[in-house]
């Protein structure tokens, strides 16, 4: 469309130039002068059409390149750079006022001051963009009763999409608003889905299915963001950078990403931590029924599991493998991998220990 408009403009300019040449130079045309002017208009329009096509194509390519380059530049860099340029030009205006009165070299010095201070303001702004961004985020961060509110927009990590529990959480309504899926996360999902390894391929396809399920839900809106960070070395680094630039939390269940993002002051919502927090509280002395699945690591121990997957260690329970026993809780151990419950048989006598 842009090339067509530019070509049309050059065609009209060529026609006008042809008519002007014919009338100004009074070029000798055989036959009627009117026919000669029309002939030169046609020639000028043709030349303009050819030149316009070439110029329009180059302008369109240049604009496309400029658009792609601008999209890769973070919004904070653009704002800070323009602000620094404006401040530099204001200072240059104040400094150059007396220079205009200097004869001969005054205007040249004033222009030089504008160029130097404008560039210096933009350069300083870009060099200090992280400090400026942190200051703005600190001032604009919404707070309630002294505590930070969680933004309605959240960034999804690859691991949490493949995990799939995020779709079930969204269905319950505990997460609402807009879920942002960066384009580099979508590319990683596609790469995993196209892997030659059958396990990776199934995990990648499951992640894509989860995204389709989220898009069809009514509680959240899924948005694909084309923003990328070519200088970042991996997806985790890109996610942390996006979280800093957009001041948004990252939903993940990746332990390492959780730690790295926390070190860089990026909020993280960890699905595993949420799962552990939702597990029922078990207190020492509480009684429960446990199905002993297998023997434990220590001699005589039996191992069972609750419905939520919590491991239950039963002392002297190895003899009851494959049976359900009644136990009471002695202690609870919280680890990075989850929670472990240590129990003892309610009655040490085998006949009385079975809960039939």
SSE topology:
Layout: H1 2-24, H2 33-72, H3 75-96, H4 106-127, H5 129-140, E1 143-144, E2 147-148, E3 153-156, H6 158-163, H7 165-172, E4 177-182, H8 183-193, H9 198-216, E5 220-225, H10 235-246, E6 250-252, H11 255-263, E7 268-270, H12 271-278, E8 287-295, E9 302-305, E10 311-315, E11 324-335, E12 338-345, H13 350-353
Parallel strand pairs: 3-4, 3-6, 4-5, 6-7, 10-12
Antiparallel strand pairs: 1-2, 8-9, 8-11, 9-10, 11-12
Quick structural overview:
The protein has 356 residues and is α/β, with parallel strands linked by helices.
Structure description:
With 356 residues, the chain is α/β, with parallel strands linked by helices. Helix content is 55%, strand content 18%. The chain has 4 domains: 2-72, no CATH class; 76-131, no CATH class; 147-277, 3-Layer(aba) Sandwich (Rossmann fold); 280-353, OB fold (Dihydrolipoamide Acetyltransferase, E2P). Helix 1 runs antiparallel to helix 2 and helix 3 (75-96) runs antiparallel to helix 4 (106-127).
What's the helix-strand series?
Answer: HHHHHEEEHHEHHEHEHEHEEEEEH
The appropriate CATH architecture of the largest domain is 3-Layer(aba) Sandwich
Strand order of the largest sheet: 5-4-3-6-7
Distance between the termini: 80 Å
**Number of DSSP strands?**
12
Q: If you compute it from the alpha carbons, what radius of gyration comes out, rounded to the nearest whole angstrom?
A: 35 Å
In the predicted model, the low-confidence regions spanning at least 5 consecutive residues are: 138-147, 349-356
Mean pLDDT metric: 80
Looking at this structure, what is the CATH superfamily of the largest domain?
Answer: 5'-nuclease
Q: In which range does the helix fraction lie?
A: 55-70%
Backbone shape: elongated
Enter the CATH topology name of the largest domain: Rossmann fold
Strand content: 15-25%
Number of helices: 13
Integer count of domains: 4
Largest sheet: 5 strands, parallel
Task: Assign the structural class, choosing from mainly alpha, mainly beta, alpha/beta, alpha+beta, or little secondary structure.
Answer: alpha/beta
State the name of the first-level CATH class of the largest domain. Answer: Alpha Beta
